[in-house]
Amino acid sequence: MFKEFGLEPRSQGKRNTCSVFVTTWALEFALAKNLGKGVPLSVEYLNWACNQVINNRTEDRGQFFHDLLKGYDRHGVCPEQDMPYADRFDPQLEPSARAIKTAGQVRARGLKVSWINPWRPQPGLTDEHVRQIKETLAKGWPVAAGSGHSRLLVGYRDDSTQPGGGVFITKDSGAGAYTEASYDWVKTNVGDVFWAESTPKRSTKRR
Description:
Cathepsin B, Chain A, alpha+beta, six-stranded antiparallel beta sheet, 6 helices
């Protein structure tokens, strides 16, 4: 799904930003489907936007999906080129005027977020949650899966030899690559789950 838009995995480095990457990746894929082209979005900006919402100014802490999405709803998210990802967290870092402007333009695209399972204190999914995840993936939308190490689910493969009967293919910022997680692992360890979608760009070609 991502190769055609040039939106391949990136590494989070030593920072505690896996959920920020996952949320950004979900939004940027929905944006790519809307625009008909890939535009890498700024993890750094979305992390800043979330910190504005939760009033965090001191630490590079792990973020929750619902707070990141509140940050997006309030501040949008700009392209990566307008606020590049940094190796270290800088509590004094602020977006430029251009970043704020382009973030508003992305937000105006009307990307829609839907929840399969909102956050709860204890992780764990049901068979119905797994069915909904697979159904969403089959429709062409990646699914954000929150856990101790969050990943973006981008595909799946039924396989009776795997725990739970198959594996999800994941876009993993910890590895900076695509990795796999069994259905059983996802059911046991994942808590909050959402996806982002958009209206695909209409062709302007005459028939």
